[in-house]
Amino acid sequence: MPAFSSMINGAEGQVLDLDSAVKDGVLGGGGGVGFGGGFSEKLDLKKMIEVLDSPEIPSVFICPISLSPMEDPVTLCTGQTYERSNILKWFSLGHFTCPTTMQELWDDSVTPNDTLHRLIHSWFSQKYFQKKKRSEDVQGLTSEILDTLKKTKGQARIQSLKELRRVVAAHGIARKTVVEKGGVSFLSSLLGPYTSHAIGSEVISILVHLNLDSSSKSNLTQPARISLMVDMLNEGSIETRINCTQLLKLLIVEDDFNSKVEIVSSPSLLVALMRLVRDKRHSSGNLPALSLLKSICSSSSSQSHKQIQLMIITIGAVPQLIELLPGLNSESLELALFILDSVSNLKEGNLALSDCSNTIPNMVRILMRVSENCTKYALSILWAVCKLSPQEYSLIAVDVGLAAKLLLVIQSGCNPSIKQQSADLLKLCSLNYTDSIFISKCKLTRTIQ
């Protein structure tokens, strides 16, 4: 049997070779590894490899060809070991060399490496049972906390909720256990008109991590519960406000959005979201708030859509978003532009955009500097504003360099529809000038030549 010189990480971080690992019991020995005297369960190696997917797999267990753990290791005459299926495929392609050393093989037979196979199985068995034990411990702990929650009140309940939140945030098995044990229904029952913010914030921080079914979502969209969430969105800590925003998005962004229009038509909800967008001390709330606002603006019903758009305009969101545009990252910028483009379809939205002195300059700055979607929304907003009063606004647009930007868009490799938008807007801007004056005014002579 060939010797192995590959190095692996053993217990407590020391580096061991394969022989030392076996001798010292780091990897276990032939029969298997367990807790306090071994285990009787014989598990399929392939299943364990799939379940564990561990980044800490010893390198000696990895096939040099596939870079995956070996299930059936075989050794060549050169002393190199590979997964059987991988080396046989190598041979079938007409290669009669060792893939690692590129030596020509004087013997093309492969020898099953039973010792390494047992070690691989032992290592994965040990890790598998450790993980299984941890999962069982987490499941037991989660069930215990849920039982305690049902029996406690006041400060003791808050402490139990905090503990459940920590477990749920850290372990997927805990999230699954809460759902399977009926925890969602119980947690939802804790939310109501008389719920303290201390209880409500903990409950919501747990619910936002869970996989909620339609029934649970419907239960959580009862007016009293939504009202509590909106209150906490206005008055809670930044973490609570973000959690409320994320949970509301999970609850209302559904196929039956139109049946929930009253929920999202709340001025206090929209005001709270805009406060979160504007909060310069806590920029982490910016993206979730804009994301929920975009979802609210994406209503499929034209009647509810208009109702929500008018409310967004009424609370003063348009000038606020316009002023925030320069400081937003690309993802948040695209969401903000989507919202502004959405309200620009209404006369009231158009007027609100045109009343902002920075609308046109900020839109011009955005062109060709960010994503294609941002450019599309900016062009649409510019078109809506300039068309409102071509003689006034197109002059402003030309003065801040719009025409040159539009030519760049037209000459770029972007979507044909965006090029057409740019061409239409360029034509609108030129209506106030003769061709020669327009070219001179915009300093486009060199570009055109």
UniProtKB/TrEMBL annotation:
Q: Which reaction does it catalyse?
A: S-ubiquitinyl-[E2 ubiquitin-conjugating enzyme]-L-cysteine + [acceptor protein]-L-lysine = [E2 ubiquitin-conjugating enzyme]-L-cysteine + N(6)-ubiquitinyl-[acceptor protein]-L-lysine
Q: Which InterPro entries match?
A: ARM-like (IPR011989), ARM-type_fold (IPR016024), ARM_PUB (IPR058678), PUB22/23/24-like (IPR045185), RING-Ubox_PUB (IPR045210), Ubox_domain (IPR003613), Znf_RING/FYVE/PHD (IPR013083)
Metabolic or biological pathway: Protein modification; protein ubiquitination
What range does the record give for the signal peptide?
none
Identify a single GO molecular function assigned to this protein.
ubiquitin protein ligase activity
**Which keywords describe this protein according to UniProt?**
Transferase, Ubl conjugation pathway
**Example GO BP:** protein ubiquitination
Tagged with keyword Transferase: yes
Domain U-box as annotated: residue spans: 56-130
What PROSITE patterns does this protein map onto?
U_BOX
Give the E.C. number(s): 2.3.2.27
Q: Which PANTHER family match?
A: U-BOX DOMAIN-CONTAINING PROTEIN 31, WDSAM1 PROTEIN
Q: What does this protein do?
A: Functions as an E3 ubiquitin ligase.
Q: What is this protein called?
A: U-box domain-containing protein
What is the source species?
Lactuca sativa (Garden lettuce)
